[in-house]
From TrEMBL:
This is Probable chemoreceptor glutamine deamidase CheD. InterPro entries: CheD-like_sf, Chemorcpt_Glu_NH3ase_CheD, Cytotoxic_necrot_fac-like_cat. Keywords: Chemotaxis, Hydrolase. Pfam families: CheD. GO terms for biological process: chemotaxis. The keyword Chaperone does not apply. It catalyses: L-glutaminyl-[protein] + H2O = L-glutamyl-[protein] + NH4(+). Belongs to the CheD family. Its EC number is 3.5.1.44. PANTHER family: CHEMORECEPTOR GLUTAMINE DEAMIDASE CHED 1-RELATED, CHEMORECEPTOR GLUTAMINE DEAMIDASE CHED-RELATED. Probably deamidates glutamine residues to glutamate on methyl-accepting chemotaxis receptors (MCPs), playing an important role in chemotaxis.
Length: 176
């Protein structure tokens, strides 16, 4: 537990199918994305913001499930409004949507299209976007200022591991 006046940063990690909201000026919300998309929303006047992390665009055919964009977008927006944000002051930043495999359909692109169309329909301006490509991203977001950072993560290269040389063991049993 932090003491009063403690200035240590507070880190909140958002994993697939989750969202987080904070008005703590020391908080940083972070996630790691591949084909998934994270939408960061902030009301800078109210000094509150949040991030979600969805796996699939649109909605589940049988109702809301946390891995779908529509459900997580609604949870994030409604959570921000409930915490004191103004709908008209919300600003967005969109990250992710990489194409992680040539063997599967481009779910990343579908996620990005969903997110940008949803935000447009809701009248929420997208201030910046870093989407697509072939690399994963680590995203850090300051919910009270709207400042975001990303680090692109290179594709992993298979390491060549040398088999260590083993000295032959002298048998202690004599075979006849």
């Amino acid at each position: 537990m932090a003491a009063v006046g403690d200035e240590r940063a507070r880190s909140i990690t958002v994993i697939q199918g989750e969202f987080a909201i904070s008005s703590d000026r020391r908080a940083t919300i972070s996630t790691l994305l591949g084909s998934c998309v994270a939408v960061c929303l902030c009301d800078r006047g109210a000094r509150i913001g949040g991030m979600n992390h969805f796996l699939l665009p649109g909605e589940h055919p049988s109702g809301g499930t946390h891995k779908y964009g529509i459900h997580l977008m609604e949870l994030l927006i409604n959570g921000l409004l409930k915490a004191g944000a103004s709908r008209g002051a919300l600003e967005a930043k969109v990250f992710g949507g990489a194409r992680m495999s040539d063997n599967l359909r481009d779910i990343g692109q579908s996620n990005v299209i969903f997110a940008t169309q949803f935000l447009s329909r809701e009248g929420i301006p997208v201030l910046s976007e870093s989407t697509g490509g072939r690399m994963a991203r680590r995203v850090r977001f300051s919910p009270t200022t709207g400042h975001a950072q990303q680090m692109l993560i290179n594709e992993t290269v298979d390491a060549i591991v040398e088999t260590p040389k083993v000295s032959p063991i002298e048998p202690d049993v004599t075979l006849f």
